[in-house]
Amino acid sequence: MRGTALAAATMAGVLTLAGCAKDTGGSSNNDSASGGSSDTSCVTAPKPPAAPAATTTSSSSGEKVDGSKLKVGLAFDIGGRGDASFNDAAAAGVDKAKSELGITTVSESTASPSESESAKQQRLEQMASQGLNPIIAVGFAYAPSVAAVAPKHPNTRFAIVDDDTIKLPNVTPLVFAEEQGSFLAGVAAVYKSKNCHIGFVGGVNTPLIQKFEAGYLQGAKAASNKVKIEDEYLTPAGDFSGFQDPAKGNVKAAAEINNGADVIYHAAGASGKGVFDAAKTSGKALAIGVDSDQYNQATVAADKDIILTSMMKRVDVAVFDFLQADAKGDLSVLPQRFDLKVDGVGYATSGGKVDDIKDVLDGYKAQIISGAIQVSDKPAK
Fold first, then answer.
1. Which of 174, 250, 317, 337 has the fewest Cβ atoms nearer than 10 Å?
2. Do residues 369 and 341 touch, judged by C-beta distance below 8 A?
3. Quick one: what percent of the chain has pLDDT higher than 70?
4. Rounded to whole angstroms, how far apart are CA atoms 123 and 109?
């Protein structure tokens, strides 16, 4: 009898809590845009185990290295400095190297939209002919050019971001586990969504951007088996304007928000500003940035109050580590892939909107690092 009474009382408590959770889930969308505390009515998975005290290691040793003899060539992708995303992250790595390694000579050049392959080759050829060494190509779009130019300059060291297809002794790939960081973005989106309805906006439908999409979808579904996900790209493969079209980003994000999504993650380069603007204008949505800590980017400062977090793709870490290793004369110390374990990807906490779920995100992060969770780089829809 006592057991029966206790069970009944417990069940009543559970029903009361369930009713409270349901009421919380019906709160106004304006609460979502404020950040606030997490609304876990969408979450169906148990909270992950607490993370160990330390789950990351830095690939930089922190030792003092003299890089004053390096003459760096930095070939930006479309957008260059000021894109508040991918290129700015690369620039930050070089700027840090100038400060900490004593590098004084840096020559920068930026790709223009829809430029020819010959223009990219000419840019790299000119840098190599000027004696710049090493030369860093920012983006997989440079792969054919690096493959063509590097053999002509065997004593010039090249690095290329986001491509590992070039098998030459003087070319170093700098690649990332974008899917791992995006998994955490998906978890954050679910925990912060009031509607249990989130979105993704990719810039160009390429295998690289599909890694962001794949991780985001998997992370969201790991946290909730009832979440609804909008999933769109701005342009198909081959049309790289999707990385620099804020107006199109705005339209796509606004459509997803109108469909009910209240947290939108973009992997769209400079087009992400349009996504942020759409979330801000709606007054009922949050957005997740990419590559850099976009909360702190001047070019999107007007939208910082709706930026929930950013998936940090630490191109700055990879570029700095490459320059440091090059200055030491030992490129073998670089990781084969910049992942969560070496702080190559991660999430930003600026703005404080994920402070209340940091333990959850770190718990999932620890499981990915340990191998308990395997994150796919192919979208499962």
1. 337
2. yes
3. 87
4. 7
| pLDDT band for position 112 (cuts 50, 70, 90) | confident
Q: Which of 376, 368, 380 lies closest to 56, judged by CA?
A: 368
Q: Which of 133, 109, 134, 143 lies closest to 123, judged by CA?
A: 109
Cβ 184 vs Cβ 364: under 8 Å: yes
- Helix H or strand E encompassing 228: strand 228-235
What φ, ψ does residue 204 adopt, rounded to 5°? Answer: -130, 135
> What domains, with CATH codes, occur in the chain?
50-176+314-344 (3.40.50.2300), 178-313+351-381 (3.40.50.2300)
pLDDT at 81: 87
pLDDT band at residue 40, thresholds of 50, 70 and 90? Answer: low
Pairing of strands 263-267, 197-204: parallel
CA-to-CA separations, 167 to 114, 146, 147, 162, 317, in angstroms, rounded: 26, 11, 9, 14, 23
d(CA 309, CA 290) in angstroms, rounded, equals 9
Please give the structure tokens belonging to residue 91: 């620039």
- Token pair belonging to 356: 């209340």
Q: Is the pTM of this model over 0.85?
A: no
Helix, strand, or coil (residue 160): strand
Pairing mode, if any, of strands 345-347 and 307-313?
antiparallel
